[in-house]
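pinned: reference chain
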Amino acid sequence: MIDRQTFVELMSGVCAPVTVVTTTGADGRPHGSTVSSFASLSLDPPLVSFALDRTSTLLTHLRPGDRVGVNILAAHQQELASGFARRSDGPGRKFDGIPWTVRAGLPHLPGSAGWTAGRVDRHVDGGDHVLLVMRVDEAESSATAPLVYARRAFGTHSLLAVAS
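pinned: its structure tokens
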């Protein structure tokens, strides 16, 4: 078995998309959290996955069948990523002072590089995290550069020069 620090260092070198997962709670308030484990899972049916720490307050609002949105952040949205990564002072507080709208009944962050929405299909045990599988029923992408995270820093994707 490898030690924790070796594993953390290895995984820090893996570029990950930066997203803000959102939902509207039974309390009617918006809830959201920064997530960098978002991935495509299946084309038929259309499924994506993301992981939440077992202690995440967002997890309490995302049971199977619940509606969920994923804002795929754009390169210019680093501040949003940092803000939604912090523990909040209360329900909906992460949304204070930032522009957001309601889309498909869910909190949406305008200017994002992409958006998808659907329902939580199931939870899968993942050690200290829970993997959520989401069945996609809405998606939109743009040509906007996405925000990525690697080596404990934000960046974006750039194309490599093709040798001629």
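why pinned: DSSP finds two helices and twelve strands in the chain. The longest strand covers residues 114-126.
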